[in-house]
Write a structure and sequence with these properties.
By secondary structure, the chain is of the alpha/beta class. It contains 10 helices and 10 strands. The strands form 2 sheets. A 6-stranded mixed beta sheet has the order 1-2-3-5-7-10, sandwiched between helices. It has a 4-stranded mixed beta sheet with strand order 4-6-8-9.
């Protein structure tokens, strides 16, 4: 019997979702994205839950979307549909009625980074890293909403640096930029998250809900219409460079981009 790729449990005042595909560094399948959205519904249906923690098995938070799934893409429209699908999952995560905490150990790349950004708080080990290295790997691009989350957290100039260079932020640098809420040693991160959950459980739920919704509305007001970058998403996903990036990633070689 196959092992579930997403595990969900409620323990005390918190719900926990665990990405459970460690053999692939928790590269995210469509089923895992759907599992995350379904977990959000379960959290909202449980009045006893005061916080929602996202974590992962095996030492990596999530190494992005499983690239093998992109081999099924035939047209630029497939790329636009994928970004819309990812946006819908992240919107659902942002709309959860209780505070969300990303417990990040190891790499949070691509879609994994986007999920961590959509959480309210990020508790990380010293070895955690954050990045979206698509400029040097796949040759695709991000939706405006995902770009906006990065800008909200680290500013426009640093977002340019991160996306154009394709580099990763180490945990200490990410904390200095405001992306990481707090750092913890690997053997202490679970205790640090539990302590945070216990603190949140003593706070006024309606105040927390109102605060989170107010901030979410402010962020939404600053974001462009979702279709504002469809032409740019189509440009990248419909390109020969994107097909080359996927093929090179799966063959474990460097891509040869041509700008077409």
């Amino acid at each position: 019997m196959p092992t579930p790729e997403v595990l969900f449990e409620v323990a005390g005042p918190a719900a926990y979702l665990t990405f459970n595909r460690p053999q692939a560094r928790n590269a995210l399948t469509w089923a895992m994205y759907d599992g995350l959205a379904n977990a959000c519904d379960r959290v909202d249906a449980d009045p006893g839950v005061c916080a929602f923690v996202l974590r992962a098995a095996g030492g990596a938070f999530a190494a992005g979307t499983d690239i093998g799934q992109f081999t099924a893409f035939q047209t630029a429209a497939d790329g636009v549909a994928y970004e819309r699908r990812l946006d819908a999952v992240l919107d659902r995560l942002e709309a959860v009625q209780v505070p969300t905490i990303a417990q990040v150990e190891g790499v949070a790349a691509g879609g994994g980074c986007a999920i961590a950004l959509a959480c309210d708080l990020r508790v990380c080990t010293d070895g955690a890293t954050f990045g979206v290295p698509i400029a040097r790997t796949l040759g695709n691009c991000l939706s405006p909403d995902t770009c906006a989350r990065l800008v909200d957290l680290i500013g426009l100039a640093r977002t340019r640096d991160l996306l154009i260079t394709g580099r990763f932020l180490a945990a200490a640098e990410a904390q200095s930029l405001g992306l990481v809420t707090r750092l913890a040693a690997p053997d202490e991160i679970e205790a640090a998250v539990r302590e945070l959950v216990e603190t949140l459980a003593t706070h006024a739920p309606l105040t927390i809900r109102a605060t989170r919704q107010t901030l979410r509305r402010i962020a939404a007001h600053r974001r462009p219409d979702r279709s504002a970058a469809d032409d740019l998403i189509a440009l990248c996903y419909g390109s020969a460079d994107f097909r080359e990036g996927v093929a090179a990633f799966l063959a474990r070689r460097r891509p040869r981009f041509t700008g077409r």
